[in-house]
Design goal:
By secondary structure, the protein is α/β, with parallel strands linked by helices. The protein contains 15 helices and 12 strands. Strand 6, helix 8 and strand 7 form a beta-alpha-beta unit. The protein is flat and about 65 Å long. It starts with a strand and ends with a strand.
């Protein structure tokens, strides 16, 4: 299942530099992994997971196929985007197509790079973009409510449900709150998601700091961290310039460079994992001599639906899932050892897949 994260930000915050690093990373991976398509505004990047390498080593897998996340460079945001300023209309259309928003905020000072507002204030920058998205959502909600009137007069049940959800969103937006703050019942979530409200999408704040602050952050990123915590959102500290340099090095050189900078891992790896966590995603594995492969599912997915990520027929004809926990697979040194130790379980249709499960699906044709 594909997941898209849109990268947004005001001009001169380092968004393009960060995206260039992502696309270079994706391009470098293209030779090693299938299904890595690169377009000018899209980077399809592997989600780092050391467990996959461990499993492949144990099974002697010839090929390693990680799960992936797509980053979309969404350009054109300026104040007034909700009214079509700059590339506003294109911006709003693109952002509706992503699952979450990575909001790049300028957390560095540089006299050679001007800020569009003439000051460095990442919290205010975040509020500028949030305001534009809320204004666009409010206009959309009001237009939809007006269009529902005829169906409402006819007592259309679906229209009544839609009106209820739209009014809940309208109330929040009029109070200056994004749509994601509205509490939605489980039975309403499908219809709520169909509204495609911009501010209903989860947000990850990306604090772009100078090279010297890449490890610990700075006063600017600390303010963003406090804002994110208050909102229930996530944040990650990254130096786009460092990431751009890293993306041009081979694996061995990258490790040396990171060590010199006092970093344990590339910021892009943290960004990708943070995006993965933000969307409540998890991974299960299929492992064999041919390939070791990671599969992305949302937390709480049952075994038949997890099987469906491989092929729709697997879900339709699901019989059972032979399952080994990751730790058990490693401790028992593979499937045979796990089976002998009684660690291989036969799970049925009601089983909720756990992160790290190694699975083999049995299904009817």
């Amino acid at each position: 299942m594909g997941f898209k994260m849109g990268i947004v930000g005001l001009p001169n915050v380092g968004k393009s530099t960060l995206f260039n690093a992502l696309t270079r990373t994706a391009a470098a991976q293209a030779a090693n992994f299938p299904f890595c398509t690169i377009e000018p505004n899209v980077g399809d990047v592997a989600v780092p997971d050391a467990r996959l390498d461990q499993l492949a080593a144990i099974a002697g897998s010839k090929q390693i196929i990680p799960t992936r996340m797509t980053f979309v460079d969404i350009a054109g945001l300026v104040k007034g985007a909700s009214k079509g300023e700059g590339l506003g209309n294109q911006f709003l259309a693109n952002i509706r197509e992503v699952d979450a928003i990575a909001h790049v905020l300028r957390c560095f000072e540089d006299g050679d790079i001007t800020h569009v507002e003439g000051r460095i204030d990442p919290v205010a920058d975040a509020q500028t973009i949030e305001t534009e998205l809320m204004l666009a959502d409010l206009e959309s909600v009001e237009r939809r409510l007006a269009n529902l009137q005829r169906k409402l007069k006819g007592g259309d049940k679906e229209a009544l449900d839609q009106e209820r959800l739209l009014k809940a969103a309208q109330e929040a937006l009029n109070e200056g709150r994004p749509a994601r703050t509205v509490k939605i019942a489980d039975e309403d979530k499908k219809q709520w998601n169909m509204l495609q409200l911009l501010t209903s999408k989860p947000v990850l704040y990306v604090c772009n700091v100078q090279e010297s602050a890449a490890a610990e952050g700075n006063a600017f990123s600390a303010k963003v961290a406090a804002m994110a915590a208050a909102e229930g959102n996530s944040h990650v500290v990254i130096s786009a310039r460092i990431e751009e340099e890293i993306s041009q090095l081979d694996t061995e050189e990258q490790a040396m460079f990171l060590e010199e900078m006092g970093l344990h891992e590339a910021g892009l790896d943290r960004l990708i994992r943070a995006g993965y966590a933000l969307l409540h995603l998890q991974t299960y594995f299929t492992v064999g001599p041919k390939e070791a492969r990671a599969w992305t599912i949302t937390a709480g997915t049952a075994a038949p639906q997890a099987a469906g990520e491989i092929h729709g027929d697997f879900e339709k004809g699901f019989i059972r899932a032979e399952t080994i926990g990751f730790d058990d697979y490693v401790t028992c040194k593979g499937e045979t050892g796990a089976r002998d130790a009684g660690k291989l379980r036969a799970e049925g249709k009601s089983y909720i897949v756990k992160d790290g499960d190694v699975m083999h699906f049995l299904h009817s044709k």
